[in-house]
Amino acid sequence: MYSITLWEFAALAAAAVLVGFSKTAVSGANTVSLAIFAAVLPARESTGVLLPVLIAGDVLAVLTYRRHAHWPTLWRLFPAVAAGVVLGTVFMMWADDAAVRTSIGAILLLMAAVTVWRRRRLDAPEVEETASRAGRVKARSYGVLGGFTTMVANAGGPVMSMYLLSAGFRKLGFLGTSAWFFLIVNSAKVPFSAGLGLINGRSLLLDAALVLFVVPGAFIGKVCVHRIDQRLFERLVIAATVVGGAQLLLR
After folding, report:
1. Are 69 and 160 spatial neighbours (Cβ–Cβ below 8 Å)?
2. Where are the alpha helices (DSSP H) in the chain?
3. Distance separating alpha carbons of residues 102 and 104, to the nearest angstrom
4. I need a surface site. Which of 28, 38, 108, 244 has the fewest CB within 10 A?
5. Cα 65-241-194 angle, rounded to 5 deg
6. Dihedral pair phi/psi, residue 222, rounded to 5°
7. Which residues contact 36 (CB under 8 A, 6 or more apart)?
8. What is the DSSP letter of 124?
9. Where are the transmembrane segments (predicted)?
10. Angle in degrees, 0-180, between the axes of helices 43-65 and 6-24, rounded to the nearest 10
């Protein structure tokens, strides 16, 4: 497997716990996990190791919140996300680690700023807004960005978090829609990542050890989410996005 020390494996295990927590409690918090993986492993290869860990978290999130998904929103997003994944794959063919980090960090901070500005100007809109023409344009814009960022750095969570918050989703609807979205999208990314050489036998061996740590994280998140009120939930999601974006820019 990768030449990592015991302390480095412990850091990856802690990041895996955080993945489970983010999937069942505060979506977007796994950008911290992304930074840890990229710090311990080569940045490009770290995306291939992290992807199966994320999928394990997605499965647990779907089992927990599967009844709360808003499928009209999901169907509206998927075509744009597919286009973003293709763009991200092309980008990964030539971009170096510095270009990837700078691009994703800037996008995350921009999305957080736009969401905060919007929510200060207006009350939170209803989910039905996504059916309007403006809502469709917004869904396509966020969908392309989400597909791009999830392909190049597994960082689509904060982008989709900003979209779901701006669309007025409440806590359980947010988590249920996000859970199904990322299970489908992350699973669809596997052939692309394997084709780029990011997923291989060596990475899967490391994943086999790390996925065990996702389960306790998901359990902690499930327990904690009911103790977090809506306003605090939204602030935590935005804060996690800002932290993740800043980490990518400063590394």
Report:
1. no
2. 6-24, 31-40, 43-65, 71-94, 97-121, 133-153, 156-166, 171-195, 201-210, 214-225, 230-250
3. 6
4. 38
5. 70
6. -60, -40
7. 11, 12, 14, 15
8. P
9. 48-65, 77-94, 100-117, 204-225, 232-250
10. 40
Q: Token pair for residue 81?
A: 């996300």
Question: Considering just the CA atoms, what is the radius of gyration of the chain in Å?
Answer: 17
Q: Which two tokens stand for residue 68?
A: 């709360």
The whole-angstrom separation of Cα 241 and Cα 122 is 21
- Residue linked to tokens 């990229």: 38
CB neighbours (10 Å) of residue 120? 7
Give the domain ranges of the chain: 6-250
The pLDDT of residue 126: 44
**Residue 30's closest CA among 170, 116, 155?**
155
Longest dimension (CA), the chain: 53
